[in-house]
Amino acid sequence: MKIIEYEDKYLEDVKDLLVELEEYVVSIDKDNLDQVHSEYRNKMAILDLEEVKNNNGKCYIAVENDKAVGLIMGCIFPYNEYDYLDYKCPKRGEITELIVSKNIRSKGIGNMLISKIEEYFKSIGCEYIIVDVFAYNENAIKFYDKNGYHSRMYTNIKKI
To answer: Based on the structure, what is the number of domains in the chain?
Structure first.
């Protein structure tokens, strides 16, 4: 198992991993709002990788037997021009995607991936890392809690 920076030869594996993640999110979505659109596989990875490229980010992949079996993406998004009015605006990284294929979980790969992105963010002067976690994804919440993350904001939803 090795953790490397994304290479184009792994694009199809990345597409598969993102579809696996979205299918899982759909399966646990109690509000039935998520979906895997027919164009998701062909477009989402490209959009995510462009976002990484355009926002001083990184994509790391876990490779085993020349196949990507996990990935993490993170970016440095700019604050908007008025955020400073009520926020100190420390430099922060944001984890935008994290997935380890279900066939290979519980082997420490997620920990290796998160350590790699944390190392990158720290190396470029980030003071904090944020990540949005789907409220129904109890496994992810536990994972991030074990890795020292905590909730700071909640998004509430109500059907009307």
So the answer is: 1
